[in-house]
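Hey,

The postdoc asked me to send both predictions to you directly instead of through the lab channel. I've kept everything plain text so nothing gets mangled by the mail client. Protein one:
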Amino acid sequence: MDTSVTIIGVVIMALVGIPLYKVFRSNALNKTKIKEIMSKFPQCNFGLTESQNKKVLALDEQKKSFLLIDFNYNPEQSWFVDLNNVSACRLIPTTQGNSNDIVKIEFEFLYKDSTTKLIPFYSVEHDQVTQVCLYEDHELAKKWQKQIIICLSS
């Protein structure tokens, strides 16, 4: 009787413990990768940082720098923008055909020399379950666009 209870207890602990271990390990690896990528820009002090849906956004308001790290790509992708050379920022949602379904959201940075740079923020190809993350990512992109515009105006 005691042996079967012990076996059931060990199985339940394994069912709970293994996923928790994997989550904590993945989280620690991502934090290490974020620190490693941010250390490539020692001149910047990213005071404002936010992460959601395997994306990390960081803004240095003093030096006017923006960093986007996307862990949906393999290997992860990062984009750095020096906002001192940027005159405007806007979001470009791309829809599919005649429908209103958004398949891509990009940040567009208009530089003072009239060139533009597009940084992909959301792509339906990287959404594991079709458009589950779309609303959250779109709201996050709008929020960060406002933060960038405030940074550009100061």
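Protein two:
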Amino acid sequence: MTAIHADIDAMRGLHEALVRYRHAQREVASRGDDAITAARASLEARASRWQTQLERCQAEFGACREQAAQAPQDGTRDGAGAGTGADPVDCSGYARAVEQSRERLEHIRRWQQRIDAEAGEFGGTASRFLDLLENDLPRTEEHLLAAIRSLEAARRVQAPGA
């Protein structure tokens, strides 16, 4: 095999590698978008669950506070002095549950903001990369094919007197 044949074969191999690379990188970019979408959906589902949990805890805390407000009236001693004073209503557990749910929801919201910020940054970079894959790389592939065709045509031309 002559050097020109080896060069043409190497250029064909490069062309095939570029085509494979372009297709593989499209898949990578698509998986990146899918991962961002899945992360956002997961965080949104968690936020929804914790929002529901927070609302339930707030309702329970509110009910406990109402019960506590009523307790002094219900536990008053009657005129005979036979007091049946009720124990004071302790709502601290409900207050902690509200605070924990609120903190958890806020933590998820911060992660959502972080994912959105990072996804925005990724989106800009990914967009430029996809532009390269969809526009620049195919032009390069075509230029390479034209060079291969030109070399093949030159190879077929017989030198004068040969």
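Summary for protein two, as requested: DSSP finds two helices and no strands in the chain.

Thanks,
C.
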